[in-house]
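Case study.
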Amino acid sequence: MDLNPAQRDAVTTPSGPLLVLAGAGTGKTRVVTYRIAELIRRRVRPARILAVTFTNKAADEMRERALALIGRKLRARPEISTFHSLCVRVLRRHARRLGYPDAFAIYDRGDQEGVARGALREIRAGDGLLRPGELIWRIGRWKTASVRPDRAAATAHTDKDHLAAAAYRRYQNTLRTQGAVDFDDLLLLTEELLQGFPEILEAEAGRFDHLLVDEYQDTNAVQYRIVKALAAGHRNLCVVGDDDQSIYGWRGAEVAHILRFKRDWPEAKVVRLETNYRSTREILAWANRLIAFNKLRHDKRLRCARRGDKPRILQCENEAEEAKAVVGEIAERVRARKRKPRDFAILCRTNEQPRAFETELRQAELPYVLVGGMSFYDRKEVRDLMAYLKLLAKPRDEAALLRVINTPARGIGQTTVQKLTETAVGAGKPVWDVLGRAGRMGGVPDAAREGIRRLRELITRYREQSKHVPLAKLVRGLVEELGYRDELARIYRNPDDRDARLAAVDELLASVGAYAERTPRPTVGGFLQQVALSTMDDDRDKEAKLQRNAVVLMTLHAAKGLEFPEVYMVGMEEGLLPHHRAVSEGGGAVDEERRLCYVGVTRARQRLTLSLALSRQKWGKARPTQPSRFLYELTGQADNPNYLAAIGKRARTGPTKAGGAAQRRASSGRR
DNA sequence: GACTCGAGTCCCGCC
DNA sequence: GACTCGAGTC
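After joint prediction, the assembly is written out as follows.
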C-alpha cells in the first residue's frame, strides 16, 4: 500500500468508531476506499459495507476507485451511495408503514413550487406577501430542524410566519395525498421509520456491519441521527471530514457534529491527516492564507512537497470575454498536447454561469460535461413532457395534471380549471377523479368539455398501453399524438429558440430510451424516480461518463471531493463569491463562502487560474462588478483600500485617480 | 377562452 | 432576460 503513516493508521485501525480529521488534499477519499479494501481483505463481506457520500459525482468516483482496488470481478460489491439514495432504498421497503405507497414519487424543486403555489392559493395568500420560493425555503428550514407541520405555528412570531405555517400544513397534506415526498422528507421519513419501528431499525441496521461516511462535516441533524441509528449496533463507524470544507450550512449542516463525535463514541480513535499530496506549494500557500481569515476553525496548516507555478488571476471585460479567455486557453493547451480535456475543470458559484462557457466550449469543439445543475429538467418543454409521464404513472398527481391540463391548448381555460378544482376540493378528491363529472357541471363550455374528455381518454389509454408497449415506444407515441412538437413550433417563432426546444424534446426521448435499455424492467415510475435523484445506477453508463475525455463544468458545491490538474475558478466577484445573499445575511454566511472558495482553490493540483469579469449581465442589464474580497485575501492584500471597501470597512486611504488604477492592476495579480 | 401587453419579480448552492 | 400575473381586447 502506498500510504503515508497517518493514512495507513486510519486504514488499518481495527473495527470500532474512527474519526479521521483531514485537511484538503490529504487523501480522505483515498483513506475511505483503502479502508473498504482492507475490510474486504479481512474477510468482511463486501455487501456488508456501506459507504455514504453527499453528491452523486463523489459517489461515482468513490465507487470507481473502490472497484479498481478490490477488483471488478467481485460479484457482491460494497454499497456506495449518497444519503438520499440510501434513504430511497429504505423507504421503498417500508414506506407503507407510514401510509405512503411503495412507488412514492419524489418531488423536485419544480414540483415543490407547484405544490407551494397551490397551498398559497388555498389560504388566499396570493397577494405576494409570501411567494412560492420563500415558502419552500421556509419549509426546508422547518424540515431540517425536524419541525412538523402541526408544530410550525408554535415557532411563528410574525404574521408571515403564521401564514407560512398554515401553508406548510397544506403543502404537506398535498404531498401526502399525492403519495409524494420531497428531498427533506426522504431523510425525515427514514428517520421516522428507524425511530418508530424497532423491527425496521433492526432489519435496516442489520444489513451492514460497517458504515463509512465521507465529508462528515456536511451532515445535518437528521442525517447525523440516521447515521447514529444505523451504526449503534455494530459501532463500526468511520467518519472522515474537514471543518474548513463545511459548505452546506444552508441545509442544516453543523460542524458541531464532527466535534461531538468523540462524545457520542467515547472509544473512538482519532486520526489526523495533514500532509497534502494534491496541490503545489504555491496553490496551498494561497489556500492557507485565505482560510486563515475565518476565525472559528481548528487551526491547521497543510504541509506539502511539490512545487509549481504561482496561481494566476485573469481579468476580463465581461462574462462573455471571460468565457472566451478561459476556453481559449484550454483549447490552446489541448492543441499543444500539454493536456487532455479531462484535465480541466471550470468551477462556478451558480448554475447560471456555465451557459457562457458551454457556448464557447461548443464553438471550440472541446468535449465537455456539465455536472449537476438540473437545468435540462428545468426547461419548460421537458417539464411539460415529464408532467405527462407523471400522469401516466399516477393520474392523481395534481401538480402534473394542472400543469398540462391545457398544454397543448385544448380549450380548457382558467375558469374551467377553477371550477374543477373547487369541485374536487368540495368532494375531498383529486381533480383527476372529478374530470368525469365535467360533462354534468354547469357553466363549462362545450370546447372545454370536449378537451377534458380527450385528455382523460388519452391518459387512460396510454396508461393501459404502458402495461405492454415498450417504454421508449410508448413515450414517442405520446409525444407524437399530443402534437407537442407542432405546438412548440407554433409558440416559438424564432428558429433558434424553436430548434433548441425541439432538441430538448429529442434529448428527453433519448434519455427515456437509455433508461429503458439498461433497466431490466423499465417503468414510467422508475424513470421518474431516477430523474428526481439524478442518479444513473448503471455501471456501464458511469464508466462511460468518467472515461469521456471532457472538460468538466460544475459548481463549487459539486466539486467538493474531486481534484483536477488544472482548475479555473470563474466569476471571482463580490456578489457571486461571496454571493450577495450571504453578504446581506451576515453572521457566518461569508465564512461559509470563504470555505467554498477554499474548496475551489484546493481542487487544483498543478495549475490554478482565478478569473473575474469587470462587468456582468444581471437581469438583462450589464452592471459593473467589484473584485471578490477573497482575491485580496488569497494574495495577501488585506491592507488594500479596495479590499476594505469590499468588506464594508472604511478604507484607510481614499483612492486617488492614479491610486485606483494601480490598485486595480494589483488586484488582478502581478503576473 | 385565447391572445397580447405591460408590470413586477426573480434563483445561491445539493440531493 | 425570462417568467408569471392581471387587465384588456377580440
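Observations recorded in class. The first helix of chain A runs from residue 5 to 12. Residues 536-543, 651-671 of chain A have pLDDT under 50 and may be disordered. We will return to this complex in the next lecture.
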